[in-house]
Amino acid sequence: MAKKTGPDSLTLTYDLLKWSIPAIKSFPRDQRFMLGDRIENHILDVLELLISARYSRDKIDCLKKANLKIEVLRFLWRLSLDLNYLNSRRYEHVSVLMNDIGRLIGSWIKYVKARDEKIRQPVSPGV
Q: Taking every annotated instance into account, which residue ranges of this chain make up the domain bAvd-like (predicted)?
């Protein structure tokens, strides 16, 4: 098995959650409980889906759902920027984190699909 050289999607999602909680505290009070809660819940959902994918036989379904949640999060964070609840430096940081998470989830999906195809291929008899 190849040695990991960097953080995985689960670690980055945990880091995103850890970073997001104090960032959301700077939102206006009414938005902290509306938009902020949506963001936190989506990140928690992604974390839960990635944990499920790690231990589940049906990894693809969990990973696709996590990928969709990441896409929704991109729009929620962008809305936070457009409403001036987040400065551009923080938005850039969260965008990089989410792009990294999305890229890692996409790679995981490709790996699982390739592995599953290899398993399904019939073994040809020797000559």
A: 13-112
